[in-house]
Design a protein that fits this description.
Number of strands: 11
Number of domains: 2
Strand content: 15-25%
Radius of gyration: 21 Å
Largest sheet: 5 strands, mixed
Protein name: Rv3651-like N-terminal domain-containing protein
Structural class: alpha+beta
Length: 368
């Protein structure tokens, strides 16, 4: 997929074309993302449909060249390469960089904290089977907008550690490295809203929305994404007509009008989808040259160790998620139902110490 110079923002696909892509994906071996998630992603596809599908035995499927395995921590996932509108994707509240800015579900004193995020779960299809999509329950659609907005704000506050202006760089040079995105549904009393938050490349996503003057929450919560995209492209192309120089922001924005992306469309162990997609991003936080705060580096290292224990069968997924700060301590079978805050914290601290500093001869010392 080569980058082609653009003179205007391309027209979005019709709903019929999006449906065609969805059906082709559902007919492709290894893809088990929900229909709704695939529709939400393919609405942003910005290349001819014939480049994405092939016909085999009378059925359309996603072209094999677009699919690549994603293996992390012993678990397998399937990623699809596709060119999307630059306004696709959302900043993720689960981004490892800003993890310490959100109260932890494993903190028993944070149960009523304003910014406590709900536990992340796996979406189950109509047949009851788990799928390649994450799911969170929110109190309202307004809460979804608040959370996504805060995620973007936190990224902006942390971007000062970068040695250059990312937004300016994208406007001048475009985006070369594709972002990795995963399906996630926000469940609210007003309805379900399907998103593709960025697992790797949150800052690039934030900057693209800034350059393209996108209200990412408005697009995410739109009742008709195709119609919203049509209005959006019309507005952006109108800006281009008024641009009087090559340095005009509207013309520079064409550098990120269409970008390469990798969509996680399948996985062999849906229950471990969150851990699988986060592992690569988690590794990035260990590199000192990226300038992450020491506490974030240490948390990433610790979670990486716990993930290896889980993959080796030393701890189960529930213990892993509690110790990694994703679930309340009360989910541990060792936790008494009436345990107070101090008792819960003491239990988790003792388990963490035992796992991070195993005694001589302990099998955990042999895990690499």
């Amino acid at each position: 997929m080569t980058n082609e110079p653009l003179s205007e923002h391309p027209a979005p696909h019709t709903s019929d074309t999006v449906d065609r892509l969805v059906e082709a994906a559902l007919a492709t071996d290894g893809i088990n993302a929900p229909r709704e998630a695939l529709a939400a992603a393919f609405a942003y596809a910005a290349e001819p449909v014939d480049r994405l599908i092939i016909t085999e035995h009378g059925r359309e499927r996603i072209h094999p060249a677009r699919l690549r395995p994603l293996s992390v921590g012993g678990e397998a996932a399937l990623a699809m390469s596709v060119r999307l509108y630059g306004c696709a994707g959302s900043t993720w509240e689960r981004n490892e960089r800003n993890d310490t800015c959100w109260p932890s579900p494993a903190d028993p004193a944070a149960a009523t904290a304003k910014w406590l995020l709900p536990p992340i779960e796996i979406w189950h299809g109509p047949d009851g089977k788990p799928t390649a999509s994450l799911s969170v329950s929110m109190t309202s659609v307004d809460r979804v907008v608040e959370v996504i907005g805060r995620a973007s704000t936190l990224l902006a506050e942390g971007d000062g550690r970068r040695g250059y202006d990312l937004t300016e760089d994208l406007m001048l040079n475009g985006q070369e490295e594709p972002c990795l995105m995963v399906a996630q549904v926000y469940r609210t009393p007003e309805g379900d809203f399907w998103a593709w938050p960025t697992v790797k490349g949150n800052n690039r996503t934030k900057s693209r929305h800034q350059i393209l003057k996108t209200d990412q929450a408005a697009l995410l919560t739109a009742t008709d994404v195709t119609a919203s995209l049509q209005r959006w492209t019309t507005e952006r192309n109108a800006d281009l007509e008024r641009a009087d120089s090559d340095d005009h922001p509207a013309r520079l924005a064409l550098q990120v009008a269409v970008v390469k992306a990798r969509l996680v469309v399948g996985c062999t162990e849906p229950e471990l989808l969150y851990q699988t997609v986060q592992a690569g991003n988690r590794r990035d936080h260990i590199h000192a040259e990226l300038g992450f705060p020491a506490v974030n580096e240490d948390r990433a290292v610790g979670r990486g160790v716990l993930e290896k224990y889980r993959a080796a069968g030393i701890i189960d997924t529930t213990v892993y998620r509690v110790l990694a700060g994703e679930l309340p301590i009360t989910r541990l079978y060792e936790c008494p139902p009436d345990a107070g805050i101090c008792e819960q914290r003491d239990l988790r601290s003792r388990l963490l110490l035992a796992h991070f500093f195993p005694a001589a001869g302990d099998p955990r010392r042999r895990v690499r």
